[in-house]
Amino acid sequence: MAYAIEGNGAPVLLVHGMGLNRHMWDWQMPSLMQKFQTIRYDLLGHGDSEQRPGPYVLNDFVDQIIQLLDHLDIDRSALVGFSLGGMIVRAVAVAYPDRVSALAILNSPHDRSEAERAAMLTRLELAFQNGPQATVDAALIRWFTEGFAARRPEVLDQIRDWMNANDPKIYPEIYRVLATGDAEIATSIAAITCPTLVLACGEDYGNSPDMAQRMTALIPDAQLAIVPKLKHMGLAEDPTAISDILTPFLEKALA
Fold it and tell me: Does 3.40.50.1820 match the CATH number of domain 3-253?
């Protein structure tokens, strides 16, 4: 398992999204590492971590987090999860509540409708047939605003390179977890008791503000934040807009 530890303070474990890697947190690190011991790692099947064949299930990624915390001798950590990572950290908080000191769920799907799931399964079939390259360009349109894509094409190029570097046999196996795993934890998140932030970007239609609102309503005392005008990769497009919410939440929760 590939991981990196930076900064000092209360531990905060960062869990990246589907097809990405631990470096997607680069945009958040200047804020987080000043306050916390930040731990970022590559999910199974991603980056420099183990590239085993599928199939995968959500609990594989839950187990990976517990193994990492055990390896680092960390009893409890805040968990920050983006997209698929947001699903994983919710599942950890349900299964291992004593290991989670705070939870931040960023731009993550929840209890998709039949139409939303059908769209995901269509993209899943494309990924099975043609690998990650078949889905990445359409994803970048969903993930960034047009203005940012025109101004900062190098950011999109970096993320395209990360996505295209995924193993074409492993990528769709994990995409299946993203496409279906939200249903597994749609109701069980009501058992989460730690301080929780649910954040969505206003124009992230696949991981919508409505989903975030419904998650917040289920999780006791959860805090909701909607960041306007950004899409799925708002944390790369406008890092400050995300950090200005995420960092104070973690400071208060971990004080």
Answer: yes
The answer to whether 225 and 196 have CB atoms below 8 angstroms apart is: no
pLDDT single digits (tens) 162-195? 999 999 999 999 999 999 999 999 999 999 999 9
SS3 breakdown of the chain: % helix, strand, coil, rounded to 5? Answer: 55, 15, 30
CA 119 to centroid of chain Cα atoms: 20
Percent of the chain past pLDDT 90, that is, above it, reads: 87
d(CA 103, CA 99): 11
> Does residue 210 contact residue 202 with C-beta atoms inside 8 Å?
no
Which residue's structure tokens are 């960034």?
144
Closest by Cα among 120, 126, 124, 154 to 55: 124
Cβ neighbours for 154, distance < 8 A, ≥ 6 positions apart: none
Inform me whether the pLDDT recorded for 131 exceeds 80: no
Tokens 């931040």 label which residue?
104
Token couple for 46: 């991603």
- Residue spans of the domains in the chain: they are 3-253
The stretch 146-153 carries a mean pLDDT of: 97
Identify the residue whose tokens are 């947190």: 25
Q: State the pLDDT confidence band at 124, using cuts at 50, 70 and 90.
A: confident
- Bond preceding residue 248 cis, omega within 30 of 0: no
Cα-Cα-Cα-Cα dihedral sign, residues 214, 220, 226, 232: negative
83-106 CB burial, b ≥16 within 10 A, e <16: bbbbbbbbbbbbbeeebbbbbbbb
